[in-house]
Amino acid sequence: MAEQKKTAAKKAAPKKPKAEKPAVLTGAVPEWSNPTAIGKLLGKSVRRIQQLTQDGVLETEIPPGGGARKYRTCETIQRYIAHVEQKAQETGERGRTAELNLKKLEAEVKLKESQGQLASIRADIAEGRYIETETATEQLAEFMDTFKSFAMNIPSRVAGTVGNYTDAATARAIERATRKELEDMLALFVAAAIVEPAEVGSGEKVSRKKV
After folding, report:
1. In sequence order, which ranges of 43-201 are alpha helices (DSSP H)?
2. Residue 193 falls within a domain, yes or no?
3. pLDDT tens profile 91-132
4. Residue 87 lies in a domain
5. Is 42 part of any domain?
6. For the chain, first and last CA: distance in Å?
7. Distance (Å, whole) CA 36 – CA 88
């Protein structure tokens, strides 16, 4: 009785679905194919296959047994792959050519800008707007000496003026403080006005406006 129940339970239990086996391509590739078959192999429409044929990318032949023109399957696939690789190479070359042309254009623009600046400088020199560096340096030194003499007389003048309103010790303290501040400021001014040889070479021009 127990065995009969076990047998009935086994029959009532659902059967496990069998695992599907992966699809396996069998058979040899046909030597000849029509446009529809070639289109499926390449993932293209029949119209596209016909267009590639008209462009000379793909070729058809009459099979040995006669009949309608067809494509040699393997040869057609190889021709299409070669066509795609060639197009990719041409695209890359066009990209490189475009990049080179862009760099060439940028270089030409910079050259024209430099030529324009050079022409402007030459025009300024011809009109006498520039002088030699040595002359500019001498004029600057003369100006600095004159200005320094004038500036260093200011403390004594200030002391003389305030002396009428305060005692002598305070007036002298004001004079010393004013002189010290002027000396510090002049030292900084002179240091900033010095032109080093590395900054301006021999024979270079200096604008009159800066002197």
Report:
1. 46-54, 73-126, 133-152, 154-162, 168-193
2. yes
3. 877 777 777 777 777 777 777 777 777 777 777 777 777 767
4. no
5. no
6. 126
7. 26
